[in-house]
Every structure is written in C-alpha cells, then in structure tokens.
Amino acid sequence: MNLLRIFFGLSESFRALMLLAMNWRTALWLTGFSFLVVSCGNDADTPILAGDTRAAAAKGEEIYQKAKQADDAGNRRRAIKNYDKTATEYPFAKSGAMARYRHAQLLEEKGDILGAFKAYGKFLERYPGSDMYTSVLNRQVNMAQSAAEGQIKTNFLGIKSKLSLEKTVEMLDQLRKHAPRSRIASKAHFTKGQLYESKRKGKEAIAAYRELVREQPDSPEAPEALFRVGVILMDDAKRGNQNQANLDLAREAFNDYLIQYPGHSRNAEARNHLKGVAGQDLQRSYDIAEFYLKTGKTESAKVYYRDIVRRGGDDKIRSAAQARLKELGE
Question: Which of 93, 230, 243, 253 is least enclosed, having the fewest CB within 10 Å?
C-alpha cells in the first residue's frame, strides 16, 4: 500500500515514464490493482487493512459501549442490535467475543431459541480459542437437548414450546459440527435417531443410527444404536413393509450387533429377537405355501412346506408343514 501511495504521489508525466520503463506485466499489475483500490473505495465489505485495525478496534469498542449502556438500561432491543453489530462488523475488537456472547444470551432471554442457538454457533466458529468456548458449547448442548425433549419454555408464558423436527435436527447437527467425534457428537447423533424413531420415520432413524455406528463405533451410544436398527426393521416387517427384505436386514443388524458388541446389556434381547425373526420368516413361508395350496398350485406349495421342515425352528409351524406334506402324499 505504501508503494501505491508513492506511485500516485508522483506527477502524471513521471508516472507515465515509469510505466514505460517497466516490463508490461508489472505495469499491467500496478494499473490494474490501482483500479481495484479506487473502485472499492470505502465499501463496508472491504476487508480491514492492517493499518486500519486500530481505528476499527476503536470503532468496535465504541459500538460495544453503546450496546452495554442499552443493556444496563434494560433496552434489550437496542442492546441486541449493537452487540450483533460489534461482533459482525468488528469481530477482532477487544470486546468482540463478549459482544457475541451477550448477543446470544439476550436472544435466549427473549425466547428466540433458534436465534440464540445460531448466535452461540457464530461465537464457537469465530472464537475457538476463547476461555468461554466450553461454556458456550455446553449451552448449545443444553438447548438442543431441551428442544429434542420438547422442554423449551418461553420466558413470559412458562409453557412448553416444541420446535419443528427439522429445526431440532438442525441444532443437533450443529453440535456434531462444533464437537466432531466427541461424546457430545455421539449423544447428538443418537438423539437425532431417537427423534426420527419417535415420529415413525424409520428410514431416517436407521440412517442416523447407522451413521453413528460407522463414525463412532466405540462410543457408549453405538451398541444401542445398532440394536435399535434391528428393532425398527423387525417392527416394519410386522407391519408388512417389504416384509422379507426387512426381516433379512433385521437379522443382519442383530447379528452385527452381537458380533461387534458382545457382552452388551441387550445381547439376550437380540438373541430373542433373532428367534422372533426366524419365526416370522417361517410363518411367512407357511402362509405362502397355504396360498399356493388353496389356488391349486400344489407343487409350489410343497416347495415351501419342505423348506419349513428343513429349516426347523418353530415346532408348531414345522409340525403343521409336515402334516400338510403327509396330506399331499409325502
């Protein structure tokens, strides 16, 4: 910048001589850069130059003091506006971090949960080295958990105010972004799966649980997540949703769970579920055999009856299949 000031301080004729003496690349760069500087002017979006940082910091502190005065006077609206302006336009001012923190706090007190959550997020992204980082992150954790549990309360009415599923999921994803592969992230991921499961969005719940197991297989929540994948698939099969495919996937999920997490508290349940999956599979095969028998397709029915006898398992279904085969001459 000093070079440019010297260049433009010369007379017009001397500048022309200098450009003629330069090689064409240098001359083009100097004239082109001077055009950018002139065209940009004092645009507010132009990055603050090193020589202007003191002035910017002073301006930021001035706005921060206005915000603080309004805050102390109970003028929350003006305080929020000026705290936000300080943190947004002068983030490197001495009070920039505190401005963003107080901005978020006031939004939360106002009952603007999403606005406060986003403001805390801006703090975490801009000031990762701040002494307040952990406390701000924990505040976000509490807010997201409260949202997930539907326990957010407005300041004035004191009643529960549930956010939409999409907004709550967005909050949980932000936690994972701010604390990747941490216990906070695994809890957020698991809660996301629970939310979808509670809304009977099985596909989305399974995706969230599987992603947790894939990204953080050693987290305390991972075993339960994989177990729940099997439960959801088994329940879907009971409701007739792609019955055989879901039974096969449920069997796979329970087996994966038992292999990856032997000794986990729900191992016994998983084994019982596997027996249930096998039973449902046999029942389905028997129902198909009965359908073929009633429609006169005896040979097709025999194929299914024989398969049931071969696989064994449920004695009642197996005995019924054997009885049918005997009736059919086998």
Answer: 243
